[in-house]
Amino acid sequence: MPMADTHQHDHAPPTRRGRGLPELVRWWLLADRDKARTNHERRAIDRQAVGQLDGDTPSAKSLIEAWRRVQPIEPQDQSVVESISLLTRLIHIAAIVIGVVLGISLAAGLFAYDGKAPVNLVWAIVVFVGGGVATVLITAVGVGIRLLGGPRQPTNFAWAHWLVGPIRLLVTWPMSADHRKRVLDAWSMLIRRSDRRLATWWLLRVTQLFALAVYAAATIWFALAVITTDLAFGWAVTADVSPRQVQQITDGLSLPWAWAWPLAVPSEQLIVASQVFRGQPFDAGALRGWWPFMLMCMLVYGLGPRLVFWLASHWQVQRRIKRLLDHDPQAAIICHRLRQHRFGHVRDGQGDGNSPLATNEHVARAPATDPGSDGALVLAWAGAESSRDAQPFARSAGDAGIITVGMDERSDDEHAPQSLTDRLEKAQRDTQVVVLVRGWDVPTGDVLDWLGAVRRAVGDERTIIVQPVVQDKAGQLVCRDRAMLDAWEHRLASIKDQRLVFAQPMHPPGDASEDTPSESEGPS
Amino acid sequence: MTSNDQPTLTFAVVGPPNRGKSSIVSMLTEDTTVQVAALPGTTQSATRFDYVVDGTVLYRMIDTPGFDRARGALTWINDHANKTGDEGLAAVAAFVDAHRRDSAYRYEVALLEPIVAGAGVLFVVDGSTPAEREHQAELSILRMTGRPRVALINPMGTLDYLDAWQDALSPYFNAVMTLDAMDGRFVHRRKLFELLGTVRQSWDEPARQVLAALDQERAQRRERSAQVIAQTLAAMVTDSVSKQVDADTDSTQLHEALAKQLMDTLRQSERQAWYDLAQIYRLDEQSIDGSDVSLSADDALADDLFSQRAWMIFGLKRSHLIAAGIIGGAVSGGWIDAATLGGSFGIGMAGGAVAGAIAGWFSSEGVSRIKVRDPLWRRLLGPVAPGKTIVCGPVPGKQFAFVVLNRLLHAQSVIAKWSHARRDTIGLALDKPNENASLTTDAVKQLAQPITNLRKHAADAVRQQQEVGTIRAIVDEHLRAIDQS
């Protein structure tokens, strides 16, 4: 939706570099600017955007793209986005650098060989196999707990937070005070607005990048040591462990590659010959044969899982960011607004009275849309469909028309959500869900319960726009008091559904000033 | 009946939220303590308000929160009825019992509880919003209770959708009527109780009693208002202040100080009369606060009693003054005819009438210039000698008396129809200056002589009482005529 492949940079373009955190920040900054604008300014931009649209039934994506193309870019915002981009890149670089240093240190220490005693494989296996498996298990459990709704910061991520802080400070150090404040504000916004899953996957990606660097560096160091020096391996334990038992262990560890590379499975003779005791001489030449096994252990139990985790977390981060952008409530509001312009809901004149709607002439010219491709799914609660405000929505709902609800006596008569579910299955992912309500009615528990049913029907990530109508069927203004609209906002906010947004009428009652920002961003 | 016993006429005032239920309760019970606000959700629980006259509870209104989950409640009631066979009121009572501790249905429990306990239903809707079928669940629940039900369409500004509401509500209610909570006129309450008397046979007699009590209360209020107005008028047209001059006193300054003191006293008397009138109609003193800031710039009474605008608005019209002058002149000239035993052939009366008419003509031009000061002749004599007493007042002229009287009548007319549901300061603005509650020409003619006599016999307490009684009777008749109109 708010993403696009290529655009000129003078109009807040979505970048081709992917749906990274900077892109998310860029969108949120734009959305905030939009919220802060006056109705007058918003209408001017919306009109420009609508003017760039081609075709009768623009998709939500093309609506947002058109809107972004006409956005004036604020230099401060651009600079903040660049800084956030730099910041995230530096965090990744730091994770890699520290991981490489640690990996080389570990490998150099564990595989140090001066000819006096062979390298003790027990230590290497404990660190690179045992440590690898253990951290993989801990990470999997930690991520699972977090994704299932457990504590926000499992212990295995605490160190990552500790890591991010100093890096952030280091990166922002050379900035001017103002710029540092803006970048830190944007960073806070990123943390605050990102959902739990994005934070989890992003942290996992950073930690797995670090772990990947550790294992990659250690493995490479080991491979280089094998190639460039002579190494002798042995195993030594105090406990009474027989070579047979050791072979059982090595055979078990070798199972993943035994079929492919038999040489990397230690033989019985090698195991017997490799048992060493301090002070006793050993045959270095006979003890070289362990390196393929060790190399495969490091690849399979260390590097492999980390690579898988990193790829998975990277994919999930991209997916979460795409979802946040695609299902952003402000994007839905902007689409909703542009459609109102597009379909003639809003008159072109400025300061044009109280009616949010066009005359019948405008409505008649509005193209009917196919709800299966682009048109909104429009539901009307308790007779809102009879308002004149609802007529254009009926057109944008296409042949299926407005689904009327709230007129039956029983609350369990929920054919409407079921019908909605059926229609959603046929609709595109960006089909808007608009609920018309009568602005002059007090929002009751009944309507909130029903909105809950709609939410269950449409899923958690789709934005539901609650659009109040303010006129009766003859076009006479009925909702004369802004307090009623405020009551709606207040009560909807009590649901704590961030994707349930309340769209103000374009000319809310009692809002005499054109310069008063009145678009609601919904409950937060 | 004590306040603990439930009177026969007990009503739960129910309906959708923010449709003026509390305002209706406040208006009907004349209780300004009912919580009324423009914001929805002000009423969170059921509260009873009694209308008490002479210690007897005539009727009880129970203010309730609006329906919040009517559809959910109806679903539960229907399901319960299907399972248990309970129907109607029993099913509703079961719902109330089952959800006493359920916060989701706290409003439904609060509003249905008194109905289950036996209260009648007054269902309030807003006539300024379109009627739709969205209240089906509420109406069905109320119908299930089997209690007598009356729908009240509260205009809340306009009545654009009156017909639609009447059509929508008629199938569910025994009667439908329009009742503006912001219009406190007595006639509306009377109409409601006349209607309630026809809804249920057992309500007929209690409703008659209420109507009789209301009529009596209304007459008593009118009489008490007339008494307050007459007494205040008598006091204000005869009030004077005095002070003894001592050696250090500048008599000119003393004149001004006394004039100011007299005007303040008169203003205070007038405000006290407003308070008394408000009290008679069970309005808070705060509603008509004595401080000037409580009166808006548009209020006629916000202008000072002695301001030119007040005299323009409330003073007698030229025709009234001429009529009063003719009567006064004729009475005075009549003494000449009487002294000559008719030898003057009525010339005295005729001449007096002409002179009075001329005086009336010219006095209408100069009413606003009247000030409370010593007479010119006294000031021309120079400084008053120490030891002498300076007397300031009473304020001369008929015009002042009629300004006072008209202002009091105007205040009374506004207060009498002021709804107790209103939470703003009582607006004392005139819709049409000097035409709202002002005196008729006949009344002016009748009052001219008693007012003259009040001044003439200021020292005679018995005569004063007689004149006050005469004025009270004329004012009472005037108020009765307004009431009936």
Structure notes:
The complex is a heterodimer of chains A (524) and B (485). Chain A has 524 residues and is mostly helical. Chain A has 17 helices and 7 strands. In chain A, α16 links the parallel β5 and β6. Chain B is of the alpha/beta class and 485 residues long. Classes of the chains: A mainly alpha (524), B alpha/beta (485). At the A-B interface, α16 and α17 of A face α2 and α5 of B.
Quick structural gist:
The complex is a heterodimer of chains A (524) and B (485). Chain A has 17 helices and 7 strands.
User: Biggest sheet of chain A, strands in spatial order?
Assistant: 4-3-5-6-7
Strand content of chain A: 5-15%
| Helix content percent band of chain A | 55-70%
Order of helices and strands of chain B: EHEEHHHEHEHEHHEHHHHHEHHH
> What is the rounded distance between the termini of chain A?
21 Å
Strand content of chain B: 5-15%
Calculate the mean pLDDT score of chain A and round it. 74
Secondary structural class of chain A: mainly alpha
What's the Cα radius of gyration of chain A?
31 Å
List keywords for this structure.
heterodimer, A: 524 residues, mainly alpha, five-stranded parallel beta sheet, two-stranded parallel ribbon, 17 helices, 56% helix, elongated, disordered N terminus, B: 485 residues, alpha/beta, six-stranded mixed beta sheet, two-stranded antiparallel ribbon, 16 helices, 9% strand
